[in-house]
Design a protein that fits this description.
about 220 residues; alpha/beta; six-stranded mixed sheet; 8 helices; 10 strands
C-alpha cells in the first residue's frame, strides 16, 4: 500500500495523533571538555539531526541569543548549552564540519542566529524544507511534516519555556532532543519514498479543511 502524503496537513487533525518522543540518551553539554567528547562522537556518525532553542521574548524590542544547540544521532542527543559554552572551539568544529550531513528545518534562520555568537563557515547542512517541496509538500513546520509523514504528533508545549534556566527540566530536554532527532527520521523517510516512489500526494487547497488523520 502506498503511503498517503498531503500537500497541506490539517492542524486540527494533529491533536488526535499519538505523541512521539525521542527514546534515546540525552546528554547536556556545559563546558568545552564535555563538548570535545560530544563532537568526537557526533562526527563519527553517518547522519545528524540539528535544531536550536532561544529564550523567548515577551516584550517588544527584547531579544536573546541562541541558548541551546541540540544535535542528535539515531540514539544519542547532545544538548549544547550555548549560554554557557558560547561558540567554543568544539562547537565551531561541529558547525564547520563538511563530512557528516546535518539535517535541520529552516536551518538558514538558525545559522543566522548562531553567527551572532561568532564567525564560522557553515559545513554540511541539509534543510528539510527544500527537499519536501520537491515532492509537493507545502506545509513546512516540523509538527505538520511529522504528522504528515508518520501520523504522530510532536508536542510544542515546551517551545516558549526559559531555555536559559539554570537547569533544564526533563520535559525541556525531551522536547529539544525530539526536535533534532525527528529531522533524521523525516529525511530518511523522505529519501526512501523518493527512491521507491511508494507514495501518493494528495493536493489540498489552502482554504479547505481536510481530515488527514487517517493512516495513509
Amino acid at each position: 500500500m502506498k503511503k498517503t502524503i498531503y500537500s497541506r496537513y490539517d492542524k486540527a487533525a494533529i491533536a488526535t495523533l499519538k505523541q512521539v518522543l525521542f527514546k534515546g540518551r540525552i546528554v547536556v553539554v556545559l563546558n568545552e571538555s564535555e563538548a570535545r567528547r560530544a563532537v568526537r562522537y557526533l562526527l563519527a556518525q553517518p547522519i545528524l539531526g540539528v535544531d536550536t532553542e532561544t529564550r523567548p521574548s515577551f516584550k517588544r524590542g527584547d531579544s536573546h541569543q541562541v541558548s541551546l544547540l541540540q544535535v542528535s544521532s539515531h540514539d544519542v542527543c547532545f544538548l549544547f548549552r550555548l549560554n554557557h559554552l558560547g561558540l567554543s572551539p568544539s562547537v565551531r568544529q561541529l558547525l564547520e564540519d563538511t563530512t557528516v550531513p546535518k539535517i535541520g528545518l529552516s536551518w538558514h534562520d538558525d545559522l543566522m542566529a548562531l553567527h551572532k555568537l561568532g564567525d564560522f563557515e557553515a559545513g554540511n547542512f541539509v534543510d528539510l524544507q527544500h527537499h519536501v517541496r520537491e515532492i509537493g509538500v507545502e506545509d513546512l513546520s516540523l509538527q505538520k511534516l511529522y504528522a504528515n509523514f508518520f501520523r504522530q504528533k510532536i508536542s510544542k508545549r515546551q517551545q516558549l519555556t526559559n531555555w536559559e534556566a539554570d537547569i533544564l527540566t526533563d520535559k525541556q530536554k525531551a522536547y529539544a532532543a525530539t526536535d533534532a532527532w525527528s529531522c533524521i527520521m523525516l529525511y530518511e523517510e523522505l529519501q526512501r519514498l523518493k527512491q521507491t516512489g511508494n507514495y501518493e500526494l494528495i493536493k489540498v487547497e489552502e482554504n479547505v479543511q481536510n481530515n488527514t488523520a487517517e493512516e495513509g
